[in-house]
Amino acid sequence: MARYLAALLVLVAACTGSSTVTSTPPPSTAPPLPTTIAATTTSTTLGPLDVSPAPLTSFDYTVTETTSLGPFETPIEVAVTITGAFREPPFSHRITREVSLEGLSTVVGEAVVIDDEVWVRMGDEWEQADLGAALGVAGPINQIEGNLLPSDAVLQSLFRQTGVVEEFNGLRTRRYEFESPADIPLPVPLAEEDAQLTYWIDEDTGYVVQWQVVARGTLLADAATSVPVGELVQLEVLVQISNHNQPITISPPP
Asked: pTM (2 decimals)?
């Protein structure tokens, strides 16, 4: 996901007609971080989860990233929606990305990858391309598991934690919430002031159905962006994953 947001920060500068984004100093008291997405029902708190997830070979997903740059009162906001499907074998990935800067500019990109064949569309026509072009549409898709899903080690650690039972999209899930964890997966390097990481896991299957990062801080050195070091950033990333191990068809574009 680091490549996702690095590209977006460059887009912010391009769309504002400047090589950098500047702002006035932030107010001394910041508003609270946005409330974590609520599930339908919150009930009891339970101990460790006894489940062994089957290997995951296919799923659909939606990634929503909202980034606010600058002071809390007058931020520049960038919104990104990435929808996709993944399955293997063969390694196949379908991605669509939409980027909006303050509602003024929207860019849509699409990519399809099947084994070593890649097709990309940034306008009206599909073109065959290389994997690098697909990475430009939606980040490091060849490392999908490490970006969209927690590792097996993280999952096993979660299963040992105490979680809150919630109903989410008709599923009975466990919600695990962490304040300012040391290894929070941030898309950009921040000197964090506040951070929250939340996972929702299906009790029956052990699959992650949603996870969210909400963080705020100042940007650290990052040569991949044109946003100045020290710029105030508020970030929310929401990942929803569905249709785990269900039949998914990914075909070459017409």
From this structure: 0.75
